[in-house]
Amino acid sequence: MNSSPSSGAAPSPMRPEVKALKAFALVSRDPVPTTAGVCAWAAGEPAPPPSLLRFTQTRGFRQESGRLAASLGEDPHRVRARLVDALAAVARSLGRDDLAERDWQRLMDAMVLVLAHPPG
After folding, report:
1. Which stretch, 3-7, 8-12, 13-17, 107-111, has highest mean pLDDT?
2. For residues 83 and 108, is the Cβ–Cβ distance under 8 A?
3. Is residue 115 within 8 Å of residue 70, measured between CB atoms?
4. What is the CA radius of gyration of the chain?
5. pTM beyond 0.85
6. Cα dihedral 77/82/86/92 (nearest 10)
7. pLDDT of 31-53, one tens digit each?
């Protein structure tokens, strides 16, 4: 067992999949304050990718986020804002901001599955 002090080397960067899981955890936190359901980005946070903003305008996103809000007993605008924050964070951490609509849908499906159907 080596008990010598560290060599002073910088810590290794976090693996992308760990970053993604931490970003995914954002969806369960209290949302950032919103105005009319639009995310209020914290200082220094990049804006959501254009492809994500387009996805949020689809009927599928609105319906699924509305169902999730109803199942959680929360305000639909706040749930939408939380989903956008979490989706953007996951995409950023994976280095994939230009996802197709189907990929955004897959990420959202995973979040909804975890949030709406907790383990029994």
Report:
1. 107-111
2. yes
3. no
4. 17
5. no
6. 70
7. 444 444 444 454 456 788 999 99
Q: What is the mean pLDDT of residues 48-69?
A: 94
Nearest to 85 by CA among 53, 39, 35: 39
Token pair 């560290």 is found at 6
Residues 6 or more apart whose Cβ sits within 8 Å of residue 87: 48, 52, 55, 104, 107, 108, 111
Tell me the C-alpha distance between 73 and 3, whole Å.
52
Q: How many CA atoms lie within 13 A of 48 on its CB side?
A: 22
13 neighbors 52 (Cβ within 8 angstroms): no
| Distance separating alpha carbons of residues 73 and 83, to the nearest angstrom | 15
Buried b (16+ CB within 10 A) or exposed e, 58-68: eeebeebbeeb
Partners of 38 in the beta sheet? 35
Amino acid identity at 75? D
Q: Is the distance from CB of 95 to CB of 16 less than 8 angstroms?
A: yes
